[in-house]
Amino acid sequence: MTQHVSPPRDGTGKTAPVAQPPSWRGVLARADVRTLSLLGVLAALILIGGITKPDEFLDTRNLQLVLTQASVIGVVTVGMTFVITSGGIDLSVGAIVALASVWATTVATQEYGFAGILFTAVLVGVGCGLVNGLLIAYGAMVPFIATLAMLASARGLALQITDGRTQIVTISSVLDLGERDAYVLGVPPLVMVFAVVTIIGWLVLNRTTFGRRTVAVGGNAEAARLAGIDVRRQRLYLYLLSGLCCGIAAFLLIILSGSGQNTNGNLYELDAIAAAIIGGTLLTGGRGTITGSVLGVLIFTTITNIFALNNLQSDVQQIAKGAIIVAAVLVQRRTASTT
Amino acid sequence: MAPDSPLLSMSGITKSFPGVRALDGVDLDVQAGEVHCLLGQNGAGKSTLIKVLAGAHQPDTGTIHWRGEPVTLRSPIAAMRLGIATIYQELDLVEHLSVAENVHLGHEPTAVGFVVRGKAARASTAALLRRLGHPEIDPAHLVGELSAAQQQIVSMARALSHDVRLIVMDEPSAALDPDEVDNLFRIVGDLTAEGVAVVYISHRLEEIRRIGDRVTVLKDGRAVAGGLPAKSTPTREVVALMTGRNVEYVFPERAGSASTNGGKPLLEVQGLTRQGEFEPLDLSLHPGEIVGLAGLVGSGRSEILETIYGARKPTAGQVLVDGRALKPGSVRAAVRAGLGLAPEERKAQALLMLESVTRNVSVSSMSRFSRGGWIDRGAERGAARAATRELSLRPDNPSVPVRTLSGGNQQKAVLARWLLRGCRVLLLDEPTRGVDVGARAELYAVVRRLADEGLAVLLVSSEVPEVLGLADRVLVLREGRVVHTAPAHELDEHRVLDLVMEGSPAS
Amino acid sequence: MPEPTAFTNRFTSRRGLLFGTAAVSAGALLAGCTSNDSSDDEAAANDQTAAEDKPGKQVTIGFAGPQADHGWLNAINDNAKSRAKKYSDVTLEITEGSNDTAAQIGQIETLINKKVDVLVVLPADGKALTQVGLKAMRAGIPVVNLDRIFNTPQAYRCWIGGDNYGMGLNAGHYIGEKLKGKSNARVIELAGLDNLELTKQRTQGFDDALKNYPNVKKVARQAAEFTVESGQAKMAQLLQAQPNFDALWNHDDDQGVGALRAIEQAGRNDFLMVGGAGALSAFQAIKQDNGVLKATVLYPPTMAASAIDLARSLGQTKGVSGLAEYEIPASITLYSAVVDKDNVDQYMSTGFK
């Protein structure tokens, strides 16, 4: 056989050893690189903010402000991350936030005080999620269409409830949670809720069977089904979860804005999807990262903050925001592929 | 073109991807009118090489000469313009377009530059299909409604619709029945007679013997042998080149003690039917027994397995495990009762390609390592490692992504999943598809050992020697009906082939 | 004062419609009377005496407006309805509000076919509905174009609407006068949705007014989206960016709810705030006078009531009393009055929720 075998290559100097399949260290490093690149983007933004507006940007109050503003959309994004990881999409998050916030702030609801508002907001969120979930899991509807329908209906219902009017919250125990006096060791209650939701979300996605099933359904729904996972029930739970997050977010928004309005949650769906994707969650499903999503939200909120502090106008803000999204994704991809 | 220069000459081709050097200085010469076979295990670099040839990948270094002239294949279109056509294993047809539209995709016959002349396209497509021996395919038919074999023909018609001098075929016979394969070989013969060169990739050595002129063997991104005579090189030598070691293509010995008469059956199938797919089926399976289902593509083999498993809902009949009927059409009920399926399409139906081996193995047994939904990852890793070690899965590191594994080891990961689950009835659908020769024997041994340990195995394979070599008892299927049942040792390959083709009763 | 066309909005966004405020003083022009009898009616700004109390010829008025998804638009509908109710000689044919241009065209065509005497149209999109306005005019039905103007004067008999530039101008003058004598006074602006022409007009008016006060400088401007949520978010950032300033103009009282919430959360009260549009909540806050909000500039929804008056007069071929003209004017731009503590009681009933 020797006469047929090509001699070992020489001269070209290209006799590099055969590449090993990536070791687990490599995999870990790659995941880390993705997160690190997001942290890098965030650090660069902080640098820009610190240079352009050192007094206003590098200030405890500003940190509290940025985190507070990130809380509402952040909670929504955690739910969205689960849905996208499972290969789905939830376009109705903004509308659910709107509906939950107006339902929870009607005169009738407010008669039941703090608990009435909280309970209603969460219940409306979960209820909408349940409808989404049933339509998608058991009605075999495409998530895009089912949640688009929910978007339209929930916004319509919110409008019907308010008649376009702003519903002012008069319950002081709710309003007080948005005031400085309620901060615990300098941490606003909204930010605490955001942190708790993030931590729970991370644990559920990474450490529980629920999280594993979510990833499995998103990675390969047919394989998950044949492996004995109840794919439909899992999908139902996922949209319920997203609805729950919307309900919590609606409550936070009520605290923050002291009111309920049918225009609340405008374009949350796009912000949440964008944050999740920038964070490294695959739009096609099968991979999700809560850490990345939260970093994505913080990047967006920080950009908005820096722009506002520098008094840049909406047109410039929008152009720059688009450019930064592209840059963040490119940087991430580059760093992820060169290691 | 110099008279003695080859049609295509690639030399010193290297190509790296992040973390992987896929090609490491490969040479390949192809003469006009020859069938040049490319052999190699999964991951040896065959796919990358043909993608370079098709212009889909740009090599990092190396040169390509086409008819003696140096060329750069910047894009698939550039390669096509030179006359290089590629038929990929995963067919790249647009399901919602017609046959003619697919064949002419990207180079539609047009009037005034942009108006597609549909009639002309259909006429030329019909001519191509006749040349390929398939005049029955209607050029106006939607591709999505064709069978896999017919789609293959369409793919080939598309390649031939260009002025082609070299055709690359990536495992063209994988989805074909024996007579389809014969037709394929006839087409290849016609093409080479016209002076067209064919680069033919296959796992099946016997095919290479039949139609190949020369063989190039790839291993780990290098050409370990170039231009071997296809007909005369001993199998042992080829296998040795591919695997780097000498392998006997052997089946494990049957334990013999696996008596089918004594004891109660573990799995019973009673009158199981799916309208239009297979007729009422009766079957019983005892612990320690391997039963094979032999039949052609389309004979209902996979459908039977999937129906037993609950992935398809039967129109009649039932499946019993330990005498208890399973809820029909429920995978979860089947899994809970101890069934496990290793499906035909591993990547599409079994594996979570982005995930680690551990997670792929543990996915069906998560409740074992979790309390209140909380996963004990240490226990999970340990159990997965134990299961993969038991099957000698390589590499011995269940943290690697499952996509980096070879076909054989991916199959082992699927088996490990069911081993860990404590499954008692294993349903294997084409367990060695995409698994290279060297790894097959090992997989056979694993299956036999599992049976000896008390599992019942139901095996489906289109490779008759595999069914005969591995199974204790064989059911021969033809058009959704069992036409013969016999102990494996009473059958031989010819007999089975006669039965699946003719369906004549045994006695 | 510029021609109406110069500063009327043709926004397509339904959110675009929110705002507005202006003057009941239009009532003076039309009715020659602004006496305020107390009203039982919510958000109904119809307390002014009806234009002609003596019943005349029966007039059927067709009214088509956009979907009332905002307090101001709700008030438009309420104003039109209750105004029509005051006249025994007016029948109002009101359509279901729609933001869909095609649907609104269909509704108006139905009204044309019903042969109403006069049409009052607040288009979802002025430009897109021009053709149907022309059609009505050609059919001999006079059209009163409300607020969002058609492309061509041929499409309407009379246009009546608010003055966005005037809002900014009056807000600027009010703030300028309040800060007179204060050297290096700093002013910030919380604008509405920047995509809309009307926002630019309001800002332009504001900037032009501030030019008269050399001691006043606008130091920051951020655009919100006419929603409570965006008002809170943008105001919070502005407050962080500007540790001290003297006055704030907020384009819209609805987003002002959010802005006030942010001001409260930041614990700031060291400046004066002027709102825009004329929401009831703003009027109440001005009256109580215990916060930063001291005034608001109007974009009055009473324009719908005036439009009904104009339509009735057109139907009865009368002129406007109080003017020497025989004919109804071709266009009427309302005045964006400033409402502060001194005159808030007069406007309280026009405030919308």
Describe the structure.
Chain A is an all-alpha fold and 339 residues long. Chain A has a single domain, classed as Orthogonal Bundle (ABC transporter involved in vitamin B12 uptake, BtuC), CATH 1.10.3470. Chain A is built from 15 helices and two strands. Chain A has a two-stranded antiparallel ribbon. Chain A is globular and about 60 Å long. The two termini of chain A are 39 Å apart. The N terminus of chain A is likely disordered. With 507 residues, chain B is α/β, with parallel strands linked by helices. Chain B folds into three domains: 166 residues, P-loop containing nucleotide triphosphate hydrolases (Rossmann fold); 69 residues, no CATH class; 171 residues, Rossmann fold. In chain B, the strands form six sheets. In chain B, strands 6-9-10-3-11-12 form a six-stranded mixed beta sheet, sandwiched between helices. Chain B has a six-stranded mixed beta sheet with strand order 18-21-22-15-23-24, with helices on both faces. In chain B, helix 13 crosses helix 14. The longest helix of chain B has 16 residues. The C terminus of chain B is likely disordered. In chain C, 61% of the residues are buried. Chain C has two domains: 191 residues, Response regulator (Rossmann fold, 3-Layer(aba) Sandwich), CATH 3.40.50.2300; 135 residues, Rossmann fold (3-Layer(aba) Sandwich), CATH 3.40.50. In chain C, the strands form two sheets. A six-stranded parallel beta sheet of chain C has the order 2-1-3-4-5-11, with helices on both faces. A six-stranded mixed beta sheet of chain C has the order 7-6-8-9-10-12, sandwiched between helices. Chain C has eleven helices and twelve strands. In chain C, strand 9, helix 9 and strand 10 form a beta-alpha-beta unit. The chains are: A mainly alpha (339), B alpha/beta (507), C alpha/beta (353).
